Amino acid sequence: MRFTKMHGLGNDYIYVNGFAERVPADPAAVAVAVSDRHFGIGGDGLILILPSEVADARMRMFNADGSESEMCGNGVRCVAKYVHDHGIAKKPELRIETGRGVLTFQLTTGPDGQVAKVRVNMGEPILDAAKIPTTIAAGRVIDHPLSADGPEFPRGWAEACGLDPRMTCVSMGNPHVVLYCNDVAKVPLETVGPILENAAIFPRRINVHFVQKHSDGEVTMRTWERGSGITLACGTGACAVAVAGVLTARTGPTLLAHLPGGDLDLEWAGEGRPVYMTGPATEVFTGDWNGMA
Fold it and tell me: Which controlled-vocabulary keywords does the entry list (predicted)?
């Protein structure tokens, strides 16, 4: 199986070109095998680039644990780069079919003609609690007390990072919970992340983001991704953070988000408007996988 390793701000996936390669019969099992950073290729999951009847290409995305996800913001930017750079559809604007519908992309190329940066119309955020989904009995979960419905956490962690114990839930086609604190570096993400991801109030699990505000237009965030654990970046999560900031009046309509792997530019003008995300996409190397397929 021919593959290409790509990443968006260090959020790295193994990509298979379904236009030219045989698609794995069991992509969930292949995702687990190739994602292993010691015995596989190493990555946060597997992404298939497939033909589409309604767009330039279609993306299917599998987490490192084999679970299939509806969307991946960093991953879909890399899909757009691959589709352009490898000649599947070499044009400045693309349409990619995803688990949350067809998204549109504006591509910026470098001197070598290869895509360096991608601006994505991520669509409107989903705010209805039942559609995120969460079982919290509210129309929307905005600054909802964490202790009211949340699971049991280790003692002292909230005080250590200066947690604001209110959560906001947003779906960007996949589910996110956003919490604010004074110092994201002090959040024990490896402990608290999986507790929140698997909390009973989130029936399809959830992506977890802790955010430290610097100004109305700048934040730092850390992420525990559903099915993959701690990652260097989460594009849909950054979009959810931008939406949560506007909904709770913490940040404004344009936002610079610092993630461990780099920066993303976000825009959300409010209700009824799509979220726009701009960031890089990088191809690392191409090879052949001789394991299971």
Answer: Amino-acid biosynthesis, Cytoplasm, Isomerase, Lysine biosynthesis
